[in-house]
Amino acid sequence: MLTENQPVPPLGSAAPDFTLGSTSGAQITLSSFREKSAVLIAFFPLAFTSTCTAELCEFSDDYDDFTRGGVVVLPISVDSVPTLKEFKAKHHMKTDLLSDFKREAGQAYGVMWQDAFFTNRAYFLVDKTGVIRWEHVEETPSGKRGNAEILAEIAKL
Question: Consecutive sets of 10 residues in the chain, 157 residues long: mean pLDDT of each?
Fold first, then answer.
């Protein structure tokens, strides 16, 4: 059984650091992007579900827009790395996907659904200094933000 979630980190606070396995085969550490790139942390509930598939494919469709905005997109789910690799390959996704299989990042960001054992859909825009500048946690996992809204927040960085 998981412990209670931490609260969602407030705007203007340091983003909780994490190191997670990825579909690239590398361990990805959030703090490694400091002074290099802003990061969009995008928690999604589960691979191969309809809303998650649409969301991640849209991230791929607009990959160049995120890159031009100076942002690396880090989609995170509780799925295993092998499952995420299959999901990425099936849908020809451009961004690497990160596995929070131990649910530690979801806990740190306050987005775990305790009764379902996966995360809610949530977004955290972290600037180059590691500070959270925008966040949105969906009311339910079936909701999602459009890339136009996210890109508008990126433009404010």
Answer: 69 98 98 98 96 94 96 98 98 96 95 86 97 94 92 96
Q: Report the C-alpha gap between 65 and 63 in whole angstroms.
A: 5
For the chain, domain boundaries: 36-155
What secondary structure does DSSP assign to 109-150, as a single string?
A: TT-EETTTTEEPPEEEEE-TTSBEEEEEE-SSTT----HHHH
Candidates 137, 146, 152; CA nearest to 51 is 146
pTM for this model (two decimals):
0.93
Q: SS3 for 59? A: helix
Q: Cβ(135)–Cβ(65) under 8 Å? A: no
Which fold is adopted by the domain 36-155? Glutaredoxin (3.40.30)
Catalytic residues: 52
Tokens of 116: 């379902």
Conformational region of residue 92, where left means phi above 0, alpha means psi within -120 to 50, and beta covers everything else: left
